[in-house]
Amino acid sequence: MTTLETINLLQKISLVLIAVIVYMLGFLHGARWWKRNKI
Questions:
Q1: What residue ranges are annotated as transmembrane (predicted)?
Q2: What are phi and psi of 18, to 5 degrees?
Q3: Is a pLDDT exceeding 80 seen at residue 11?
């Protein structure tokens, strides 16, 4: 495995991780907001 391939793989992994973190934060924020509005 070349250095360039490793860098590309790491970039893909980091993009996926960032997407998952942003999605989870958005989901938690939305759930909290929905609960507050429901009561």
A1: 13-34
A2: -60, -45
A3: yes
